[in-house]
Amino acid sequence: MTQQQPIRLVGDTGSPYTQKMLALLRYRRLSYAITWGQPEQVCDALGVEKPRPGLLPTFLFEEENGLRAVTDSTPIIRRLEKMVSSRSVLPDDPALAFIDYLIEDFADEWCTKYMFHYRWYPKVDADNAGTLLPYSFDVSLPKDAHDQLKQWVAERQISRLYVVGSNDTTAPVIDASYRRFLAAMENHLAHQKFMLGNRPGAGDFGLYGQLTQLVGFDPTPRAIAHEVSPRTVAWVDHMDDQSGHEPKAQDWVKLGDQPESLRDLMQEIGRVYAPAQLANAQAVQAGDKTWESEIDGARWTQQTFSYQAKCLAWTNERYRALSDVDRAAVDKLLQGTGVEMMLSLA
Ligand SMILES: N[C@@H](CCC(=O)N[C@@H](CS)C(=O)NCC(=O)O)C(=O)O
User: Fold this and answer.
1) Could you tell me the distance, in angstroms and rounded to a whole number, from the CA of residue 295 to the centre of ligand 1?
2) Ligand 1 pocket check: which of 22, 50, 56 to mutate, most ligand atoms within 8 Å of Cβ?
3) Angle at Cα 48 formed by Cα 45 and Cα 51, nearest 5°?
């Protein structure tokens, strides 16, 4: 598959998935052209059909019949790998590739709860985001328009906190998970530069995307990151541009040779993400619009998402596709972490 470069995309500075993909494009040395703005407007201007749901970032790929607008960073990463194979972010070793996929999924679907919660739940952060996001849409916005947009954005996003399950009951659970996640990162980065060795995988870019906001945009999670994991703060700056990193095949560290610290990260996935994914998938199956479960000893209620049930099904498909030897390597790492329970779907 070829693609005329630069690769075009539309996104926003305050969007973690936009930052995930920009850093990935830089690392992969794929030339790109980003338009900061709303994909709907860009699609309208180009006469391109809008993707549904409309999400940031939106890529504009040249296909046989012209430009096509495409969303969802995880499959887009795989599409880019088919276009250009060098400087891959997908480990060749299937067991390692599975763990990389798990980390990317956790970053995209759970760490984004940290991001959205801290952005809009604490007053100081909501005020910061309300002020800055309208300027991220238009830096020259006149004051009156800014005031109006600030109010509109803040009201809209605060009213959507329930979507990620952020409320008074779950706030301490999200906070405790974020701190444990950072502690695991601190420990792990003391051993190696990236999650699975000395070259970044798709999972690193997923985590990076969320952390650009947590460390770089929102004051409360930034202060926590500086307190709990200064290595993560420095890592975010490095991940931003890895264009000069020269990866070698042996830079992926086999699962059996990974430092013990990788397990801490797996443990956090098993502790919070696995029960959430299972409860959500059950709710999708039962046709329930919301679900409730116990996560980390507290009551958790949130809206049901069919997309996240698909994520769980994909993870299970990948797990089942592993050879016996590779599955045994994955099982050895995950044993006792709680992740196992999300890998037993028929
Ligand atoms: N799974 C998608 C998620 C993208 C996503 O949720 N983007 C957010 C912004 S960071 C969005 O566009 N949300 C819709 C909205 O804000 O209306 C991906 O990986 O690209």
Assistant:
1) 24
2) 56
3) 115
- Token digits of residue 4: 């005329």
What is the pLDDT confidence band of residue 4, given thresholds at 50, 70 and 90? confident
pLDDT at 260: 97
Burial of residue 168, with CB atoms counted within 10 A of its CB: 0-12 exposed, 13-18 middle, 19 or more buried? exposed
Ligand 1 atom with minimal separation from the 74 CA: 19
In ligand 1, the atom with minimum distance to the C-alpha of 18 is 10
Domains and CATH numbers, the chain: 7-83 (3.40.30.10), 94-120+162-343 (no CATH), 123-160 (no CATH)
Residue 175 has pLDDT above 90, yes or no: yes
The average pLDDT across 71-81 equals: 98
Beta strands in 164-220 (DSSP E): none
SS3 111: helix
58 C-alpha vs ligand 1 centroid, how far in Å? Answer: 9
Distance 159 CA to ligand 1 centre (A): 17
How far is residue 157's CA from residue 159's CA, in Å, rounded to a whole number?
Answer: 5
